[in-house]
Amino acid sequence: MLNIKELLEEIKASPYEEIEISVPHTGTVEFTGLKVGDKVKGPSGEWKEKPGTVLAKLTRERNTKNITAPEKGEIVSIRQDLEGSFVEAGEVLIKIRHFLSKEEVIQLILKKALFLFNAPEKAKYYFTPEVDAKIKGSGERSVKVTEGMDLFIVSRMKRETALNYSGPEGLIYSVYFNNGDNVDAAQPLIGVCPADQLKQIQEVVNRVQSEWEEVD
Hints:
Blueprint: H1 4-13, E1 16-22, E2 27-31, E3 39-40, E4 54-60, E5 63-68, E6 73-78, E7 86-87, E8 92-99, H2 102-113, E9 115-118, E10 123-127, H3 129-138, E11 144-145, E12 150-156, E13 159-164, E14 170-175, E15 181-183, E16 188-193, H4 198-211
Antiparallel strand pairs: 1-8, 2-4, 2-7, 3-6, 4-5, 6-8, 9-16, 10-12, 10-15, 11-14, 12-13, 14-16
Helix pairs in contact: 2-4
């Protein structure tokens, strides 16, 4: 069994992730004057429609595109030696240290602590009408799942098929999609918590919400 409290202590020891910013296609790189230690912002707005800080510009065939920060954080390295150079797709330009938010810490813990039932193929997914009604009425944790339970409808190429649950018995603790979403293969649909671990997981979630200090 995963030691959730030990996992939380590990995250506290390194409360960030480093994000590598690479070029999406070939082109000539121009940096924007940012330096190591500078703070950058991620996308903002209700729909994340406002792009993050411009980190660099990439020009190919007189067409220039901005490379922007995907998350807020602090720059830890910049490949200044590539300034003005023609680079190949995938070349890493900048590394950003992104400090985890409360919600990100909780999701990280849950994805390690819960049993993740993943999408078997890329398709649109729906809960069955009975399960969907129960979730909307009483929340996902009101749904107990068992091996072979009729749980999902899979829609692909205008054909719908049933998808039964396969995994340990427990309660649906997290839902990682919205009905009708296109979900990639191997991406989680739900996270299931055994009933006897529910109290322990909720205690850790409450602890993170009350104690975690976010870095601006």
